């Protein structure tokens, strides 16, 4: 098994085409096919299936691919730092559940670089994808929450993905709604008072288990429930339908505007927001700078 073979696997999986992969890798298509067949023979499993829709990764290949991506990415980082020794573009990626303050921290990080060359990425996405992005090197850091309900399940998934979770802040549960909502002026809101209003929840796709929900109290039997895919839609539904969602209470008005507020939920439940990184790997300078920006929001916990 060679590094080049692993690069071939990753590129073929990404392009779903032997021809496109060979062009991107500057090797002939027969050489690429032969190298992949040799690797499959060595490890004793089929990595790809050729279909009318292109080249597809097999179920066994998916697991192999996750490890191959790690090796290829670490190789790239080593080459950039210790072999090329040049001022290449600074790169950083973060994946997160839908937290405005995590976006704000990203904005502040980017501002530090002014006109310097950089290539940053930010992904507001589903819980399962946050985990997968960090595992597969799409992002260096993942931001999500755990609580008493989902901690055991998610911790097992973190361990299986060879990831580490570090706590950043623990907070109570708040009702997030627009300021024109009939309950917006209350000091505290009980769950019973929310029954006549639609609860808004982020869609989790194929992994729509209660354990992957971004909102706490996911097993509560809501009378009205609407699932949405993005934060902008969620905010529109708050105004248009007097909808609400449950959150950490940390609000960034300069991103979402001043039309929304967070009111304490009458509950003893708490949530712990933290970050994921790959086990045994030190954070980059950019990763640490991002966490420093996030740390500034500890004082914003209501």
Largest sheet: 5 strands, mixed
Low-pLDDT parts are none
Query: How confident overall, as mean pLDDT?
Result: 89
> Kindly, what is the distance between the CA atoms of the first and last residues, rounded to a whole number of angstroms?
53 Å
Order of strands across the biggest sheet? 4-3-5-13-6
Report the order of strands and helices.
HHHEEHEHEHEHEEEEEHEHEEH
The general outline is elongated
Structural class: alpha/beta
Please report the number of helical segments.
10
Helix content: 25-40%
* Beta-strand percent range: 15-25%
Query: How many beta-strand runs?
Result: 13
The radius of gyration over CA amounts to 22 Å
Write out key terms for the chains shown:
302 residues; alpha/beta; five-stranded mixed β-sheet; four-stranded mixed β-sheet; 10 helices; 39% helix; 24% strand; elongated
The gist of it:
The chain is 39% helix and 24% strand. By secondary structure, the chain is an alpha/beta fold. The model has no long low-confidence stretch (mean pLDDT 89).
How would you characterize the overall build of this protein?
The protein is α/β, with parallel strands linked by helices and 302 residues long. It contains 10 helices and 13 strands. It has a 5-stranded mixed sheet, with helices on both faces. The chain has a 4-stranded mixed sheet with strand order 8-12-7-11. A hairpin with a 2-residue loop joins β1 (48-51) and β2. The relative contact order is 0.14. The model has no long low-confidence stretch (mean pLDDT 89).
């Amino acid at each position: 098994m060679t590094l080049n073979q692993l690069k071939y696997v990753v590129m073929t999986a990404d392009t779903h085409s032997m021809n496109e992969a060979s062009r991107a890798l500057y090797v002939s298509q027969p050489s690429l096919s032969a190298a992949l067949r040799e690797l499959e023979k060595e490890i004793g499993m089929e990595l790809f299936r050729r279909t009318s829709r292109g080249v597809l990764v097999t179920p066994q290949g998916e697991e192999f691919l996750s490890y191959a991506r790690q090796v290829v990415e670490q190789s790239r980082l080593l080459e950039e730092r210790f072999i090329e020794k040049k001022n290449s573009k600074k790169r950083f990626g973060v994946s997160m559940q839908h937290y405005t303050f995590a976006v704000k921290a990203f904005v502040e990080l980017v501002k530090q670089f002014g006109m310097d060359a950089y290539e940053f990425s930010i992904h507001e996405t589903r819980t399962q994808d946050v985990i997968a992005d960090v595992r597969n090197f799409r992002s260096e850091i993942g931001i999500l929450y755990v609580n008493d309900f989902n901690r055991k399940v998610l911790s097992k998934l973190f361990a299986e993905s060879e990831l580490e979770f570090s706590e950043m802040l623990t907070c109570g549960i708040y009702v997030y709604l627009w300021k024109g909502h009939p309950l917006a002026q209350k000091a505290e809101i009980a769950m019973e008072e929310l029954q006549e209003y639609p609860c808004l929840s982020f869609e989790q796709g194929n992994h729509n288990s209660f354990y992957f929900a971004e909102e706490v109290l996911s097993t509560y039997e809501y009378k009205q429930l609407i699932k949405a895919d993005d934060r902008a839609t969620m905010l529109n539904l708050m105004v248009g339908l007097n909808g609400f969602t449950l959150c950490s209470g940390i609000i960034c008005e300069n991103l979402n505007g001043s039309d929304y507020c967070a009111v304490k939920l009458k509950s003893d439940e708490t949530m712990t927001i933290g970050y994921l990184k790959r086990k045994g790997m030190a954070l980059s300078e950019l990763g640490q700078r991002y966490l420093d920006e996030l740390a500034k929001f500890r004082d914003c916990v209501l």
